[in-house]
Amino acid sequence: MEPSCGGLPGLEATRPHVKPKATCSAAAPLEERRFHVLVGVTGSVAALKLPLLVSRLLDIPGLEVAVVTTERAKHFYSPQDVPVTLYSDADEWELWKCRSDPVLHIDLRRWADLMLVAPLDANTLGKVASGICDNLLTCVIRAWDRSKPLLFCPAMNTAMWEHPITEQQVGQLKAFGYVEVPCVAKKLVCGDQGTAFRKSRSWRSLAFGTSAPWWGTQVPRRVREAWELARP
């Protein structure tokens, strides 16, 4: 899979801070192409770490990052602390006025080479598992090109995590071809002690295998590491 090129299609006129870029040609040097990572953030307290996560991602050479946020996630961070373009539900509706206007969740789906949903709260986990798409983030996920990697990072209270429905919903996302970045054991903000969720095989072989065409970029591994370093 070749990294995508250019800004979000059709958004240059409506979002002045998204600068248009030249279209890539097959002869363009690889180092000039940017690998586009779309971060989805939901209403878990772990969203506090969004600014740090974005900062870690921007440390990876060749990456361009954008963020899609749910409304509840905004409670946990300040947009001024996120140094990349941030999209929310209002942008979806403000951009579309008539039939020729861009559809933001489709443009984001086309733009991104990889999606990282971190954190994924219990509410959005249930929505995605059931196919519900009632906000910008879940619409992007519902329209996602499953030939591209989508990583999800569950984050919720231990009691919610241990509910039987959680295992079913995580399993459903895996059945869609999405890749789980497992939870870790820690003391939660509410004071509870979380339980570890460990994998017996290496993340690389479990998640993708060595034959995945985009694995050679090492971007998926480094994106996962960025979340592991940033999460609380």
From TrEMBL:
Keywords: Coenzyme A biosynthesis. Gene3D superfamilies: Flavin prenyltransferase-like. It holds the Pfam family Flavoprotein. InterPro entries: Flavin_trans-like, Flavoprotein. Residues 36-175 form the Flavoprotein domain. One of its GO terms (cellular component) is phosphopantothenoylcysteine decarboxylase complex. GO terms for biological process: coenzyme A biosynthetic process. GO terms for molecular function: FMN binding; phosphopantothenoylcysteine decarboxylase activity. Catalyzes the decarboxylation of the cysteine moiety of 4-phosphopantothenoylcysteine to form 4'-phosphopantotheine and this reaction forms part of the biosynthesis of coenzyme A. Belongs to the HFCD (homooligomeric flavin containing Cys decarboxylase) superfamily. PANTHER family: HOMO-OLIGOMERIC FLAVIN CONTAINING CYS DECARBOXYLASE FAMILY (PTHR14359), PHOSPHOPANTOTHENOYLCYSTEINE DECARBOXYLASE (PTHR14359:SF6). This is Phosphopantothenoylcysteine decarboxylase. It comes from Camelus ferus (Wild bactrian camel). The lineage of its organism: Eukaryota, Metazoa, Chordata, Craniata, Vertebrata.
